[in-house]
Amino acid sequence: MREFIHIHPRDNVAVALRPIEPGKVFDGVAAAEAVPQGHKMALRPIKAGEQIIKYGLPIGHATADIAAGSWVHTHNMATNLSGEVEYSYCPTHPKLEPLPPKSFRGYRRADGRAAVRNEIWIIPTVGCVNDVAKALVRDNQDLVSGSIDGLYTFTHPFGCSQTGHDHAQTRKLLAALTRHPNAGAVLVLSLGCENLTHEQFLQELGDYDPERVKFLTCQQVEDELEAGRALLEECAAYAGRFRREELPVSELVVGMKCGGSDGLSGITANPTVGRFSDLLVSMGGSTVLTEVPEMFGAESFLLGRCVDEAVFEKASNMLNGFKNYFIRHGEVVYDNPSPGNKQGGITTLEDKSCGCVQKGGTAPIVDVIGYAEPVTKKGLNMLYGPGNDLVSATALTAAGAHMILFTTGRGTPFGAPAPTLKIATNTPLAAKKSNWIDFNAGQVADGALTLDEAGAALLEKVIRVASGELTRAEEKGFREISIFKDGVVL
Q1: Per-domain boundaries in the chain
Q2: pLDDT below 70 — which residues of the chain?
Q3: How far is residue 369 from each of residues 300, 385, 396, 464, measured CA to CA in Å?
């Protein structure tokens, strides 16, 4: 069983695949001290100020002289990042060979789109009606029958007392969820006096099928639970018409996200998702990469893969725009990784980013889309969104992701509105939290699977989930949203 990995020939550090005791030898270098799992060990002497190289790229610099065999972490290295960067387009023209598409058993919507679930969703337009929405879900579970997979609501605190960009962003996000194909039918639930008016919502939603989308304004009826029941019955009658059928995986849109990351994230789970992404794209499908702050320092992995200069401009503007967002709020762009990330072996934001972007595989980047905007192009897309787990998973759902692949080294139980499939970076986590984890990419570190084998196995798992197999989060009913906020609350 391997104990270290030397990721790239240029690297001057190796990563421990399991806890290392002093004296353990790798590549002719003896560990001078204990090195925790996922952490780095110097493979040669590194002078103060010299770059620490991992994934073939600088992930920071030494803040003190580091002897060969020493543990390399926050006590002796620091980030190189500062503010905005002027990017240059140096296309690498990546190309994936087409593969024959596989199929899954999904739902064909009336507008032609594919879906992997046939659920009824209640979308509150304002936080004041959250408990009404919850009561409607609780009291109407008898409507979940036949081909209807579930009845859910996604509560939030917004929709009123918001201004400008925040108000528009809430409206846009909720309308995008209403359009999501996994919702066979939707009840939009309003109060009646909120900032997000019924007229505004209709304008944001655009054309819709009145059989599929129903509206209830609680202040306009005597008994909102009784009126809600009647509308949900209509939703169930409509959604119940759909049946699973064979559909090509080329119609799948899969979001990719990491959270509770550790030092193995960029070595096992994220590259496994990258292999999956390349396979799905080669079969004509679409994947979505977000978490913009966790691209900082790893831009060279991405920008050269943009299919043309227009996509490159959108990508570079997105990156610098997010840095400017931090600066406007008086925050440093590199105030990351989190305490849990550091405990797991991630030292700097560059370290985290270089591992994070492994989820994007090697495919060309075909488009860059804004918050709550839909995926419209087949292939690998980049999406504007933060690193925060709930906010970015919600944004992926709003972009039209049928499901989300979520890699984790620390573990997390949450689920987005779209099925959220948890992928462990290490086998101890997969064993300890089997009630959270759907796929164990730790098998790569154990030597049981190659990355290519793990990616192929993950594709088969995705097909099973798309065909109706429940994720661990779905089994527990764990589903929630969080809306990206950046402004005043009145």
Answers
A1: 4-78, 119-243, 248-476
A2: 83-84, 335
A3: 19, 10, 11, 28
**Alpha-helix residue ranges (DSSP H) falling in 240-298:** 269-282
pLDDT of residue 35: 97
CB atoms within 10 A of CB 65: 13
The answer as to CATH 3.30.70 being correct for domain 119-243 is no
Task: Annotate 407-468 with three-state secondary structure.
Answer: EECCCCCCCCCCCEEEEECCHHHHHHCCCCCCEECHHHHHCCCCHHHHHHHHHHHHHHHHCC
As given in the structure block, the two tokens for residue 198 are 């019924």
Query: Of 33, 32, 36, 37, which Cα lies nearest the Cα of 426?
Result: 37
pLDDT tens profile 277-332: 999 999 999 999 999 999 998 998 999 999 999 999 999 999 999 988 888 888 87
What is the residue type of 141? Q
pLDDT of residue 335: 67
Q: Which CATH architecture has domain 4-78?
A: Roll (2.30)
In our burial notation (b when 16+ CB lie closer than 10 A, e otherwise), range 72-103 reads: bbeebbebbbeeeeebeeeeeebebeeeebbb
Q: Give the integer Cα–Cα distance in Å for 255 and 393.
A: 8
What pLDDT, on the 0 to 100 scale, is given for residue 21? 96
Q: Which amino acid is at 34?
A: A
- Nearest partner of 10 among 58, 81, 77, judged by Cα: 58
